[in-house]
What does this fold into?
Amino acid sequence: MALVVTINGGFAEVDAGSWLAGRGQPAAFSGALSRRRRTGWFLRDRSALDLVETTGRAWFADASRPFLTYIPCAAPLCAVSSKVLCAPASARAGAELVKTIPMGSKGAFAVTKFAVSSWVVMASASRTTRISVAEGEVLSVRPGAVVAWTGPHPTGYVQRIGIWDILLPRAPRELMLHFYGPCIVWAEGSPDLKASNLPNFTRRAYGV
It folds into this structure.
């Protein structure tokens, strides 16, 4: 892809172009900028991302999510929409709502799909790690720690359901997402670790 990005000092810097950007982005730009809010019932990531066009340089950064991760898309990629900072507008291949609990909306979150030979810059509240999951292996990740992944969608798993998990309009505190290899998962530190005794992520062989 011809469009390139430079990450320096917590900023993602790009040339003039059309960009898929997080709300309130870019933080600074030269030249002119036009913004188009994306509308439509089936645009699952519309509340998190805008389309912006810049005629000069633009700098993307989010004070609440200062850690940036550049992900080249060697395979189709799913990225948590609320953590996308910027990407070429042409890189978006679609979006959908991932339901972690079957037949329910608790814990559901929007993901944006990116095509092969593209790239995306993710912004997270803590440092991000890249985890390769081998064939026959399962990686369990806390929902708040998920940043992006390749391969099939994860499945939700709850070891214990309490009465408050049923009554309150939130996902169960013990909810984990299972990723089945082969795949690659990018994860950050979990923002609600104190709400559960579970770690941010674990890995094991399938069926163990």
Observations:
- The chain has a mean pLDDT of 86.
- The first helix runs from residue 163 to 167.
- Residues 144 and 192 are 7 Å apart (CA to CA).
- The two ends are 41 Å apart (CA to CA).
